[in-house]
């Protein structure tokens, strides 16, 4: 059964990523920062720049997903653990 990344199951290990020469599972995905209308004007430019440059790979999202689903962390706790280097070795 194909599993899409990111997924907390990949963080546990034991899975291997198969090649997809015919692109049956589509191309690589990209993300875009979405803000509700008017929020951009309320945020400091430094924060917007920092969020715009934030790179979250499938490995990072899988680790945060694992922390929430398996270790019982909230989304905020998982994000802080990642930022402090406690989810993945840097």
Low-confidence stretches: none
Oligomer: single chain
Approximately what portion of the residues adopt beta-strand conformation?
A: under 5%
Fraction of residues in H or I helices: 40-55%
Number of domains: 1
Class derived from helix and strand content: mainly alpha
C-alpha geometry: globular
The helix tally amounts to 5
Mean pLDDT: 81
Number of strands: 0
Order of helices and strands: HHHHH
- If you compute it from the alpha carbons, what radius of gyration comes out, rounded to the nearest whole angstrom? 16 Å
Q: What is the distance, rounded to the nearest whole angstrom, between the alpha carbons of the first and last residues?
A: 31 Å
Main sheet properties: none
Structural topology:
Blueprint: H1 8-11, H2 39-42, H3 45-53, H4 58-69, H5 75-83
Structure, described:
By secondary structure, this protein is mostly helical. The protein has one domain (1-13, 37-90). Helix content is 42%, strand content 0%. It has 5 helices and no strands. The mean pLDDT is 81.
Sum this structure up briefly:
This protein has 90 residues and is mainly alpha-helical. The chain has one domain.
Question: What are its keywords?
Answer:
single chain; 90 residues; mainly alpha; globular
